[in-house]
Each structure stands twice: as C-alpha cells, then as structure tokens.
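anyone seen this seq b4? input:
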Amino acid sequence: QTWPPTTQKEFSQTDKPPFLPPHLLNIILNKDTAAHYEPALLPEPNHVMLKHLYALSIRVRFN
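predicted toks r here
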C-alpha cells in the first residue's frame, strides 16, 4: 500500500519527532529517593502527570 502524494510531502522522513513539554520530562519510576523515604514508595507525582494519566484512562479502556 502506498500513501497519497500529499501525505508523503507532509511527513518526510527527515522530520524529527516533536519534543516533549518540560513537565513530562520528569521521570517518576526508578528515580532516586532521599534516604529518609522508604525505598518501596515512589515520590509523589505532580498534578500534570496525574491529570494526564486520568485523561488517558478515560480515553483508552484497558481490558
């Protein structure tokens, strides 16, 4: 299957993917925690990440 010529012009292979917004660059998993925290607990996620995960759970239903 081939793409229509207009689509090929819009998305060339040399285009780079978009950068992530800075608030999504914070990694929650495998992040170093302070010594006084229990190692099994994750740090508290920021509100942007929580809203993103909540919106994703509404939009995509995992069965």
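The radius of gyration is 19 Å. The mean pLDDT is 67. kinda curious what u guys think
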